[in-house]
Design a protein that fits this description.
Order of helices and strands: HH
Number of helices: 2
Radius of gyration: 28 Å
Strand content: under 5%
Helix content: over 70%
Distance between the termini: 94 Å
Number of domains: 1
Length: about 60
């Protein structure tokens, strides 16, 4: 009888929803962290490639002067 009362009074469902929220937030963090790191790394690589192209163009222009 005590089990059925604790299940229906709402405290069980509240704690279950809290556990679900923590699991969801944990899963979001597990997915978001590598995604942010990948995006940051991709930006740095693209930025470095652009700087290398500009430097190479600058050297070609300076050589032709």
């Amino acid at each position: 009888m005590v089990l059925s009362q604790s299940v229906f009074n709402g405290s069980f469902w509240t704690s279950l929803n809290n556990v679900r929220a923590y699991i969801f937030l944990g899963m979001v963090m597990v997915v978001a962290c590598p995604l942010v790191l990948f995006m940051q790394n991709s930006y740095q690589i693209a930025d470095q490639r652009e700087l290398n192209k500009v430097e190479q163009s600058h050297l070609v222009i300076a050589e032709n002067l």
